[in-house]
Amino acid sequence: MDAHPKFHEVSDVCRQVPERTRPLFQVYLDIKYVQMLKTVKAFVLDGIRFPVVTAQSDSGEIQIFAPMFADENTDIDYINAILEKSLNLSTSISGKCNREKVSVHLAIVDSDSTVTYYSIDSGIHFPAAIILAS
Amino acid sequence: MPAILHQTMQRVWRTATLQMQRLWYLIAKENLLWPTLVPIRVKASVHIINVNNKPVDCWIWIREGQELLWKDGCFGKGILSRSSPTWQQRYQRETAEQSAENKPQERYIEDITQRRREARRQIRENTNEKQHEEDITPVVGSNNAISAQDTMRLEKMNDLNVSQNEVDMMEPVQLSPFEALFLSDIGCLEALDVSHENKCLLHTELYSLLYTCHKSDDFDLKYAAYYYYRAKGWVVRSGLKFGSDFLLYGKGGPARSHSQYSVVVRKLEQQQSEDTADLTESWQHMFGLSRVCTQVRKSLIICYVNSYVLKHQDSILPDLYQFEIQEYLFKRFNPNRK
């Protein structure tokens, strides 16, 4: 990894969570140099020691990407913790709590560097009321 | 072979240029599978992450010989591209100091995908505008809309701040564990451990390392399935995006055509009292997989792998001839449809 010219941009975070170096660096490269989103940075979520990559879309929305291994087992409590901590992180980044402008995504990284993104949210809304024609 | 002669041959081979290697390979090339009569070995760097002195993750990169590996067998994936490594060419194309008309028009898979997405976005915008009964401009595929996207992409590329020295190093080719094991097994890969002064890993050591770093217990089954389909002549790639283990492409790989089959690898459990095997998937799960594959015009193959090998340690390289494979093709059928 040190042989890559851009590894120094995430080396501090990788040092804190070395076991997630590969998915973190791959997602960082993909978001910054392939998807070309703005203000791409890496952070470690407090309390759960999980690295995430944050970026800003053209519309100003803060997007948070949680790198995961493709072959790791998922745990609903872990996903909940990632979601909650990510939303708290977005507040500290933007300085305001506007959850409509924040989206959290899982970035699943395969062993051949393929990255697949999924959006996660805390649930669905109630169905809209149906207005019957009189 | 005498050791001195072997060392001399190695020294001669190392000094040969890549072009000479390619020439010799083209002369001997006949089929999709490696090796050929010419002993071509590509060097790969193995990067290992250790926690508490135990390997927890590793990946395999190749920086030289990428073209050879891709051209014949479609091995590896550029870490910044969809398949073959094209990021450097696309970056240099976009940031070249030329007018838009004079820029080279060579198209890559990423460009085709980008055009297709922009056209679909344009269709959606036009459809929404029609529903709201507003004036519609522009039409799908118009040069004005697409050139605006090109300008935006150029601006974003210029903001990446990649120096000329760094461009060459930005995109190594990454091999999946199964690709690396396959190439190592047929003698075409030299895996060098970066953390131990480029020590060359034996095939058994490489298997042990990759098995240890794998996070599920079906590594040997997937390796057997991968080897099985490669030996049949298929180009085997990751099926992560479609919820399967592998995708099978014909000769030419992803650059030539879409994959025809999506493969899911499962362990065939043998019951002790009977000969019949216990299929461990529910039909609901199978039909869900099949539906996903049908939507993307692929056929689902369930590949059941059974191993008769009794291993004391799971990380020991298994004998592939001890694996039994049964494969089934699942396709949804509607009796009313003619």
UniProtKB/TrEMBL annotation, chain A:
Cellular component GO terms held in the UniProt record: nucleus
Keywords: tRNA processing
An MF annotation (GO) of this entry: nucleic acid binding
tRNA-splicing endonuclease subunit Sen15 domain: residues covered: 26-127
Pfam family, one: Sen15
GO biological process, one term: tRNA splicing, via endonucleolytic cleavage and ligation
Entry similarity comment: Belongs to the SEN15 family.
Protein name (Swiss-Prot/TrEMBL): tRNA-splicing endonuclease subunit Sen15 domain-containing protein
Automatic annotation (TrEMBL), chain B:
Coiled-coil stretches noted in the UniProt entry, renumbered to this chain: 109-136
Function: Constitutes one of the two catalytic subunit of the tRNA-splicing endonuclease complex, a complex responsible for identification and cleavage of the splice sites in pre-tRNA. It cleaves pre-tRNA at the 5'- and 3'-splice sites to release the intron. The products are an intron and two tRNA half-molecules bearing 2',3'-cyclic phosphate and 5'-OH termini. There are no conserved sequences at the splice sites, but the intron is invariably located at the same site in the gene, placing the splice sites an invariant distance from the constant structural features of the tRNA body.
Gene Ontology annotations of biological process type: tRNA-type intron splice site recognition and cleavage
Biological source species: Coemansia reversa (strain ATCC 12441 / NRRL 1564)
Annotated GO MF terms: nucleic acid binding; tRNA-intron lyase activity
Protein name according to UniProt: tRNA-splicing endonuclease subunit Sen2
InterPro entries linked: tRNA_endonuc-like_dom_sf, tRNA_intron_Endo_cat-like_sf, tRNA_intron_Endonuc_cat-like, tRNA_splic, tRNA_splic_SEN2
Similarity comment: family membership: Belongs to the tRNA-intron endonuclease family.
Active site: Y249, H258, K298
